[in-house]
Design a protein that fits this description.
Strand content: 25-35%
Shape: globular
Number of helices: 4
CATH class: Alpha Beta
CATH superfamily: VC0802-like
Radius of gyration: 15 Å
Number of strands: 7
Distance between the termini: 35 Å
CATH architecture: 2-Layer Sandwich
CATH topology: VC0802-like
Number of domains: 1
């Protein structure tokens, strides 16, 4: 079994400056949110549904395709841990969150089936990447 530090040492980071928005809708609007995500044809978007809300992190332009959100926070960047993350490895997010916490950088996190994603404020992206560079294999910054 691989430990978190060893896995992170071989994990490239892919950063997307954005801007992304974090928005929330009533749970009943999840279908409209997903349809809007498909209409805007973005390659990146995170959607989470729970009993209280439908939440999405998506490129700012995608809001034009969405129903009006009840909450919107603008100005996010997305960092992807660009390697398949085995589900039996513990401490990956703890190591990443710890490095960012030491640097005083708040984060949000979401797990896809095979990769983990972090979101940080656009104005803190360079600081976040500097804090994560010692842990990870390489950093690629995309538009």
């Amino acid at each position: 079994m691989t430990d978190a530090r060893t896995l992170l040492a071989s994990t490239p980071l892919v950063a997307r400056r954005g801007p992304f928005v974090l928005a929330a809708w009533a749970p009943a609007q999840i279908s409209a949110v997903c349809q809007g995500l498909l209409r805007c044809r973005t390659a990146h978007g995170l959607v989470i549904l729970d009993e209280r809300e439908a939440t999405a992190l998506l490129p700012e332009h995608a809001l034009l395709e969405m129903p009006p959100a009840r909450h919107v926070q603008r100005g996010w960047s997305l960092i992807t841990l660009d390697q398949t993350m085995p589900l039996d490895v513990t401490g990956v997010l703890a190591a990443v969150a710890g490095a960012l916490a030491q640097a005083g950088i708040p984060l949000g996190a979401a797990a896809a089936f095979s990769r983990d994603h972090l979101y940080v404020r656009c104005d803190r992206l360079d600081d976040a990447l500097a804090a994560l560079r010692p842990l990870c294999a390489e950093v690629r910054i995309l538009a």
